[in-house]
Amino acid sequence: MLRDKVIEIFVKVDDFCIEIQPILEEKLLEDRKIGKRNRKASLCESEMISLMVLFHLGQFSNLKSFYVHYALPHLKDLFPGLTSYNRFVELQPRCALTFMLFVKMCCLGKSGGINFIDSTHIKVCHNRRIHQNKVFRDTAERGQCSIGWF
User: Fold this and answer.
1) pTM
2) What are residue 16's phi and psi, to 5 degrees?
3) Residue % of the chain over a pLDDT of 70
């Protein structure tokens, strides 16, 4: 990926994290049973979210291959606090909520006016067993689609 694109993604994520952090601190409940550590992680939340966004934009089949074969060798100068893959996976739950909010608010596209509905039929059970099905007793029924009867 181009370095300018990586920097652009990081700036957008960092601005979002700075904006959303006070709102999250105000709304979230604290767990009083567990003591908080004061030690900072080597990767900040916006760096981790940027790496997760880059993974989803790339052509990698899994997170480990992205992190080990791309992020560690090629992005070390942009993200100087990169940790091992195992530590990165351990730190991910800390930023899961912020990542989901970022994707929901900033990354989902807007409708252009033309939308498609997937009308693939779902077979609940064989027609001979309709009367025995307890789960979909009230909702399942025989039907027809472009593929045929079901």
Assistant:
1) 0.68
2) -65, -45
3) 87
